[in-house]
Amino acid sequence: MSTPSSPSPSCITSWSISEDSLRRYVSHASESCIQELLSASDSSREIGDDGWKVLAFENGVEISKRRSGPLHAVRSRWLLQSVSPQQFITVANAIDAAKQWDSDLVEAKYIKDLGENLSIVHLKFGDASKPLFKKREFVVYERRETMDDGTLVVAVASLPKEITAGLLPKKSNSIRGLLLQSGWVVEKLQDDSCIVTYVVQLDPAGWLPRFFVNRHNTKLVMIIENLKKLVQGCPTSEAICEDN
């Protein structure tokens, strides 16, 4: 069975929304995403009790999946030695992740800042991208929060298509996919190391078989090793490498 095709641009209602209303909406939606991410990172639960099924444990990375509607949410968890949360969080963002998903990322930019820790991001992939991303674009929010215990959370998810149609009209030759509740939780350990949990649930839209999408979603969470290399290439823990 395939994922349903995207409606044509003329079939999508465009909502004109003020920046204040957009900020309130994203703040509310991202709070739900943050709670889902914190729940996914809770290591105190018994394996299987939270609906996550461990698929593999490779090179120190635990890969799990959980059914969420027709598509799976996929999670990776990894202990990063000698990498602090402040170091890793510099590359835990929508743009650096998208660069690792597919090298044919033709556009990646912050299109609106809604606050100090709240932004809207546009990601666009080209004709040479892998089938999961070919000619696809995503308009997502990105919210960064530090919890009371020092845990760092980055929540990323698509805005509703009605809002994005008014904010950034879709070009006729592209398919606008959906990134459902996704993001990172970075927990500090005593020895200046951290545990990173990364959750992805992506719906590329268009006519791609669900089994194909679910299989490739699993591969998306394997980018932590590459992000760690980016961290190690940065000169300080507070600086983001300029070429990222």
TrEMBL record:
GO cellular component: cytoplasm
InterPro entries: START-like_dom_sf, START_lipid-bd_dom, START_lipid_transfer
MF terms in GO: lipid binding
Top-level taxon in the UniProt lineage: Eukaryota
PROSITE patterns associated with the record: START
PANTHER family per the UniProt record, alphabetical: PHOSPHATIDYLCHOLINE TRANSFER PROTEIN, START DOMAIN-CONTAINING PROTEIN
Record protein name field: PCTP-like protein
